[in-house]
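Pair request: fold both.
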Amino acid sequence: MILNKTYGFTSGALAAPQANAMAAVIDPLMNGVGAPWLLYGIGAVLALVLTYFNIPALAFALGMFIPLELNLPLLVGGAINWYVTTRSKDEKINNERGEKGTLLASGFIAGGALMGVVSAAMRFGGINLVNEGWLANPLSEVVSLVAYLLLIVYLIKASMNIKK
């Protein structure tokens, strides 16, 4: 309720592509209007072709409907996972490194979600600690990129900290 009152679910600040995709599928069934069966059929054929070529259809589908600003971190995370889980000849160590990396990344995701709720609650209460002038400065993007790269390096180093 606080998130909706602070940002509004229809404003775009709280984009929920998964929910919108599910609504697009369920709406025709619930309201009795015609469903886009041709598009469903094309999607099913595409999934079968991708599966035939050993391309995960779910990952491909996620890339089709999730916006780039949400999809790029997924791609980076997949690249980190590939790197961490292929550095050793011992499969057990690779699996342990992958599990540790997944645990660390999950913690960052949960922490980011919690801080998003805390930020919304603070804004709802009239407290806004965001410096809009700094966000308008191009240097803020450079600082954000450096922080992102440091986070990537940390995830790799911490995940690889499992020795033979």
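--- second member of the pair ---
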Amino acid sequence: MSAAALPPLLARTHLIGIGGAGMSGVARIVLARGGAVSGSDAKDSPALLALRACGAKVAIGHTAANLDQLGADPTVIISTKAVHQTDPHNPELLEGARRGIPVIHRSVALAALMSGYRVACITGTAGKTSTASMLAVALRHCGADPSFLIGGDLTVAGSGAHHGSGEVFVAEADESDGTFLAYSPDLAVITNIEADHLDHHGTVEAYLASFEEFVARLAPGGLLIANADDPGSAALASRAAAGGVRVRRYGKHATAVAGARMLEYLPDDGCGVATVELTGPEGVVHRVRLQVPVPGEHMASNAVAALLAGVELGAPLPRLLAGLAGFGGVRRRFELTGWAGGVRVYDDYAHHPTKVAAALRGARQVLGPGRLVVAFQPHLYSRTRDFAAQFGAALALADVVLLLDVYGAREEPLPGVTGALIAQAVPLPASCVHYEPCWAGVPARLAALVRPGDVVVTMGAGDVTALGPQLIAELARRGSGVGGSP
């Protein structure tokens, strides 16, 4: 089967929860390869409108009849762990079982779609979406036209998925539930490894072990690119190299001979410039100036990883640099929502302490004379319980903190676990830390806290993204004389 051929199993694909980032991406690629797609989701969304425009048949709500949208039984039903956990009696799953239709996880479908390509998988506790996006954008600038599936919408492409004409497939590999073990990449980038997703893995040791298994799945002769500045990634790289895996490293603690060393990072008017030394495949050491059009040293580190991966994939260095300099960002990765009353409002997906700290350090880079105000919505009761102290320390990088209540997602509430648990752990004066458990009261509460000149970041992996527009509307209603004491 050629790289661009559609696997027969996916000829008529039905996706339960088709509006999710990963699921809608699979649907887009199946459609682009000539397959028929149907699906269902709990509510309508822009993602579903876009899929309908591409030819998908999409229903709102879950019923057995949804399996008949294509006029014949689907050849496969694609589901996710979340569907099985939260809705084990889903009528489409039950009807599919009655009809004998195969049910596979999204990761298995993606693995099938990547067959025949040179596969570059980007994973890690934090930074994988941005790094994968940067690599895809840089390769496109080189004319490589890679296929990609990423868990965030690229600003320049308007989507997180694309069926390209090139030989490379770039994929964000999700470690949260171990599904990245479905892939056998030719090139893997590990941005960092820190304890997370213990609701699935159970223990820190099990979470770390999943990365060992992932590296063991590299294709014969495959390459591991690891972050030398992150202890978890660096340790895994050393073990992999000792086991015969080809390894290259990036970061301040890397060496040019072994990969890409970031010699210097300088903020530059809301962006950044990194000086990087790297060795190309021909063995020549290059010293280059890497422009990163998004703030934060963590984003520069991601860009260096993407640069090294692009070089290893055979792309020309000058065009990679130009492509990275033109990177337009990813939705919900320090994305500007708008401004009103002299207040700038950004939105960020950060939901792990390391991600929160990195995003707030990046926000400081664009701050100016005002204050940094963060409205944080914890994601998952288990994560809130396990990392409350770490979240508190990370949020202390802001000047004013407003804690929302927990976005439970697939979890049931845990006794005593609320946003107040993190609020109590923030080591700032009590006048600077606030907890608002009622969503309806958040926009007015936040608007009362800010002053002209402030930068506000709405942050979290839940529905807090809707807060930014509401805050802007509230600030506009109040006029330019907004604000109050922290």
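Observation on the second member. The mean pLDDT is 88.
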